[in-house]
Write a structure and sequence with these properties.
Blueprint lengths: L2 E5 L2 E3 L5 E8 L8 E6 L6 E6 L6 E3 L7 E6 L4 E6 L8 E9 L2 E4 L3 E5 L2
Parallel strand pairs: 2-11
Antiparallel strand pairs: 1-3, 3-8, 4-5, 4-9, 5-6, 7-8, 9-10, 9-11
Length: about 120
């Protein structure tokens, strides 16, 4: 059974950092592209970062480039999102996503709130 479980969200001051984790089960993260999305109140869900399989190449939304880093720990079967220099505009629920055999899987999300 495929499961994605996010953790690491919370309340942080502007300029602070958080690291989100996405623990996967039922499949091997190293064999599939993994993506972080976020959804802010009243806004559509947007892609934040993606890590692909062949060469671990990554891509980022323009709004987070240079501040966020996606990575993968194959031994722990976990994907991370390191978020630095956070701003209130980064406040959202962050979701882990993957697609296996044409079926989409989402985690339950973790809330990130950036506020002083």
């Amino acid at each position: 059974q495929v499961q994605l479980v996010e953790s690491g969200g919370g309340l942080v001051q502007p300029g602070g950092s958080l690291r989100l984790s996405c623990a996967a089960s039922g499949f091997t993260v190293s064999k599939y592209a993994m993506t972080w999305y976020r959804q802010a109140p009243g806004k559509e869900r947007e892609l934040v970062a993606n890590i692909r399989t062949a060469d671990d190449s990554t891509s980022y939304a323009d709004s987070v480039k240079g501040r966020f880093t996606i990575s993968r720990d194959n031994a722990k079967n976990t994907v991370y999102l390191q978020m630095n220099s956070l701003t209130p505009e980064d406040t959202a629920v962050y979701y882990c996503y993957t697609r296996l055999l044409l079926k989409a899987y989402w985690g339950q999300g973790t809330q990130v709130t950036v506020s002083s």
